[in-house]
Amino acid sequence: MRSSLSRTFTRLTATVAVLGGLTIGATALPATAAPASTAPTASAVLGPQSRADNAVAWFAARNGSTAYQGYCEKAVENAYGTTGIYASAIANWNDAVRRGAAHRGDTNPPKGALVFWNISSYGHVGVATGDGNFWATSVSGAIGKRALPYFNNYLGWAQPNF
């Protein structure tokens, strides 16, 4: 009986290692108890296109919302499942320029690319849909979808760096 229980526990910890850890109640089972897993990470499984699809869907689900007015950078970061990476859209754009990742003036960004404008000291950012349109805050006063470039002073696009 003890040997069977031991084998079951070994299989369970191997499964936990593959999943990257599991918490039961307040006790975490260590993922290091089993051999290293070669299972792909979630981002490798989803791939960049699924991330783009998810970001576009995030905005579409909030169409018409005014909850992010004045927080365009926060909205695009939240659409990609993160927050607090850049202080503003213009800081995000300037980083893309510094890294050589900015596509200045290009109005044909791929789906999921971030599109930028210099419309204030904070700039403005949205997410491209891949068909010449984008989602953003402040589109007629709310989250909305429009054709590029829509706002004045379009800067270009860059892939998200988060």
- Uncertain stretches of 5 or more adjacent residues: 2-44
Through-space gap between termini: 49 Å
Sheet with most strands: 6 strands, antiparallel
What number is the mean pLDDT? 81
Could you spell the SSE succession in H and E letters? HEEHHHEEEEEE
Structural class: alpha+beta
* Lateral arrangement of strands in the main beta sheet: 3-8-4-5-6-7
Q: Write down the overall geometry.
A: globular
Radius of gyration, whole Å:
21 Å
What's the number of helices? 4
Strand proportion? 15-25%
Helix content: 25-40%
Q: How many beta strands in the DSSP annotation?
A: 8
Defining key terms:
single chain, 162 residues, alpha+beta, 6-stranded antiparallel β-sheet, two-stranded antiparallel ribbon, 8 strands, disordered N terminus
Helices, strands, pairings?
Layout: H1 2-19, E1 22-24, E2 27-29, H2 42-61, H3 72-79, H4 89-99, E3 103-104, E4 114-117, E5 124-128, E6 133-139, E7 142-147, E8 154-158
Antiparallel strand pairs: 1-2, 3-8, 4-5, 4-8, 5-6, 6-7
